[in-house]
Design goal:
The structure is a single chain. The chain starts with a helix and ends with a helix. It has a 4-stranded parallel beta sheet with strand order 8-6-11-12. With 389 residues, it is an alpha/beta fold. It folds into 2 domains: 59-207, Nitrogenase molybdenum iron protein domain (Rossmann fold), CATH 3.40.50; 218-387, Nitrogenase molybdenum iron protein domain (Rossmann fold), CATH 3.40.50.1980. The chain is globular, with a radius of gyration of 33 Å. The protein has helices at 2-56, 83-92, 106-109, 114-117, 134-139, 154-167, 181-191, 195-216, 245-250, 279-285, 302-308, 316-319, 342-353, 362-373, 380-387; strands at 59-62, 68-71, 78-80, 144-149, 171-175, 224-228, 235-237, 253-254, 264-266, 274-277, 289-292, 323-325.
Length: 389
């Protein structure tokens, strides 16, 4: 019996030792797993840190002025230095804009979602609009600043360099005019990673330009046109001016060609400046069509002046009721600013001057343009109002 008890005790002791050794091995195994997991987590953190490091590294690009610019990987906030820039940006990336350059008029707000209407008015730092306070711009922490010009000059480049130095924010230069909006959109689409939308906008712009070139080549007898500005209608832009580019493109004959025999004050043809002319000069030119512009977002009284004042009555355009107000919602379709809004203006003016050649359904064209560029679905009544502005 005693011998049996000893055997039981020995077996029990052996089992206990085995159990303890087994537990020790389990703990080591758990610790090994923990060490492995910690090592994996550290490796993941290293990888994530490496990825984040790459994401924060600037991307070097060449802007449309040929300047090398370092841009952040993520661009969420953008400031356009003037209306040309901002209106172009609005058609592509409205949600990333930090503000407007001017206060939006009621006729503009009608086509702008309320969330974008609430953007602050920051003014401009390039051009003739209300000058901005650079400190206020920086309060909104823009990732990138966009300078748009219809033609890049040394002045454009110097301004961009100055803005970049003073504000310590990357500045890109965009050349955008009626001949190359497709290129401007292509560039911006790559910068903001919006290539598909940019391609749609650029393709429409290019097709419109090519359409106008094709149609204008078919014109045998050009219509003589006067572009009336300001309330008295006696301010205009001469032939070759970028402000009258739409008129030249569609094949209209801009009567405002000043030479030594012409009566007018201001810069000469092609210099891009406005001129003031006399009613006597207008009678000499005797335009067949008059198109009436606006002062920024303010509708001028020139239409009433031209139609009602006796001094204008002898002009063919007035006698034949060929005086038209340029549509200007949400932005001017012809000029000031000379931005992408002019694309629909090309079709509008071509159809006014040469309806047999520019044989298009303007209602459908306007609806398509607003849907594509402004993401706005026009009603029939809105289309009618726009075309009768």
């Amino acid at each position: 019996m005693l011998k049996n008890k000893k055997i039981v005790i020995l077996i029990t002791i052996a089992a206990l030792i085995f159990t303890l050794l087994g537990c020790s091995n389990v703990d080591d195994s758990v610790n090994d797993d923990a060490d492995d997991k910690e090592a994996v987590q550290l490796n993941n953190e290293d990888v994530e840190a490496g990825e984040n490091n790459e994401e924060t590294q600037p991307v070097k690009i060449l802007d449309m002025a040929g300047r090398e610019v370092s841009l952040p990987q993520q661009i969420n906030k953008v400031y356009g230095v003037n209306n040309n820039s901002t209106f172009l940006l609005y058609t592509l990336i409205p949600e990333r804009m930090i503000g407007w350059n001017i206060k939006l008029a009621d006729h503009t707000k009608q086509f702008i979602p309320e969330k974008y209407q609430k953007y602050p008015v920051l003014g401009s730092i390039y051009g003739n609009s209300k000058m901005a306070n650079p400190e206020e711009i920086l309060n909104y922490s823009p990732d990138v600043i966009v300078v748009t010009d219809s033609k890049i000059t040394e002045k454009t480049k110097e301004a961009a360099e100055d803005f970049e130095k003073r504000l310590n924010v990357p500045v890109i230069v965009v050349e955008a005019n009626i001949t190359n909006y497709d290129k401007a959109y292509e560039f911006l689409g790559k910068v903001f990673n919006e290539t598909e939308k940019a391609q749609r906008l650029g393709t429409y712009s290019k097709k419109t330009y090519e359409y106008a070139k094709e149609k204008s080549a078919l014109i045998d007898q050009k219509v003589k046109v006067y572009y009336a500005r300001e309330d008295n209608g006696l301010t205009t832009d001469v032939k070759g001016s970028p402000h009258a580019e739409v008129l030249d493109l569609v094949g209209g004959e801009n009567v405002a060609v000043l030479n030594k025999d012409s009566q007018g004050s201001g810069k000469g043809s092609g210099e891009g400046k406005s001129v003031t002319v006399s009613i006597e000069q207008l009678l000499t030119w005797n335009p067949e069509v008059i198109i009436v512009g606006h002062s920024g977002s303010r509708k001028t009284t020139a239409l009433e002046t031209i139609k009602n004042e006796e001094t204008w009555a002898a002009i063919d355009a007035v006698k034949n009721d060929k005086v038209y107000t340029i549509p200007y919602s949400p932005f001017n379709w012809f000029d000031r600013p000379p931005s992408v809004n002019r694309i629909i203006g090309v079709k509008w003016l071509g159809n006014i001057l040469y309806p047999e050649i520019y044989d298009i359904d303007m209602k459908q064209e306007v609806k398509e343009f607003f849907n594509l560029f402004y993401n706005y679905d026009l009603s029939e009544e809105e289309i009618k109002t726009l075309l009768q502005q």
